[in-house]
Design goal:
4% strand, 94 residues, 2 strands, two-stranded antiparallel ribbon, flat, 69% helix
Length: 94
């Protein structure tokens, strides 16, 4: 987790002003990673307290708010990549 946090900070420093979606994505990933890191420091493990059961057949693994934050950040990064690739293709005329 510490390596990931340092990497996110380094990427965040190099971002340009027009990369707002990337900034938001990295901030949510960083926040989730910090939450899990603090749990790990305080309790020696991460406390997962949410679990979804659907029709008693599908049971998702337990997770916490920090995990949701990381997931949202990753989804935003993915969407931003798709957006950037689409913009690049339009500029090249592909």
């Amino acid at each position: 987790p510490i390596f990931a946090l340092v990497l996110i900070i380094l990427i965040f420093i190099k971002l340009q002003d027009d990369q707002m979606l990337t900034s938001v994505a990295l901030t949510t990933i960083f926040s989730g990673a910090m939450g899990n890191l603090l749990d790990r420091i305080k309790y020696s493990y991460v406390i997962d307290f949410l679990q979804i059961h659907w029709k008693e057949k599908i049971i998702l693994p337990a997770f916490n708010i920090a995990d949701i934050s990381i997931l949202v950040g990753v989804i935003l990064m993915f969407l931003n990549t798709l957006k950037q690739n689409g913009r690049g293709r339009r500029e090249k005329g592909i």
